[in-house]
Amino acid sequence: MSSRLAICPGSFDPITYGHLDIIERSAKVFDHVIVAVFHNESKSPLFSIEERMDLISEATKHLHNVSVDSHGGLLMDYAKKKKANALVRGLRAISDFEYELQITSMNRKLYEEIETFYIMANNKYSFLSSSVVKEVAKFNANVSDLVPEAVEKALKEKFNLN
């Protein structure tokens, strides 16, 4: 039987408990999950790719079948290179679905062999996004229930809140 390899792609700027929930649930289903950090041209990241990878590695260190990587090109080129069977995407609200449908259709055109699996966000994280976390963190709001401890510390350092 071949290994079931999934890629969980995103910008993860920074990783939140919502992301971590999707990653942990994926790790229960797939033999191996690669959390792949991509640069989104439409966003200005707060953290470098290396910083994001370090934060994800710290947050997922308890998951022995999860690794962290990055890629600068097309997700489907990366998926082919890694011989991935699946993509895992989180859905928070119905508004996410239209965007995800468009992306999934294009991905399928570029690489027919890949399947996309959507995992509904846990209700307690359905409002959560990296953008919201960054917005409240820069005003020194408590984000300890939104992000792992290492991320909270990194946010305070980025916004000079120590």
UniProtKB/TrEMBL annotation:
One Gene Ontology term of the biological-process aspect is: coenzyme A biosynthetic process
Give the cofactors, semicolon-separated.
Mg(2+)
Which of the seven top EC classes does this enzyme belong to?
A: transferase
What residues bind substrate, as annotated?
S11, K43, L75, R89
Residue(s) at site: Transition state stabilizer: H19
Residues bound to ATP are S11, F12, H19, G90, L91, R92, E100, Y125, S126, F127, L128, S129, S130, S131
GO CC term, one of those recorded = cytoplasm
Query: Where is this protein chiefly located?
Result: cytoplasm
Q: In which pathway does it act?
A: Cofactor biosynthesis; coenzyme A biosynthesis; CoA from (R)-pantothenate: step 4/5
Q: Which keywords appear in this protein's UniProt record, sorted alphabetically?
A: ATP-binding, Coenzyme A biosynthesis, Cytoplasm, Magnesium, Nucleotide-binding, Nucleotidyltransferase, Transferase
What's its job? Reversibly transfers an adenylyl group from ATP to 4'-phosphopantetheine, yielding dephospho-CoA (dPCoA) and pyrophosphate.
The subunit structure is: Homohexamer.
Q: Report the sequence similarity comment from the record.
A: Belongs to the bacterial CoaD family.
Q: What is this protein called?
A: Phosphopantetheine adenylyltransferase
Per the UniProt entry, what species is this protein from, by scientific name?
Answer: Amphibacillus xylanus (strain ATCC 51415 / DSM 6626 / JCM 7361 / LMG 17667 / NBRC 15112 / Ep01)
**Which gene carries the instructions for this protein?**
coaD
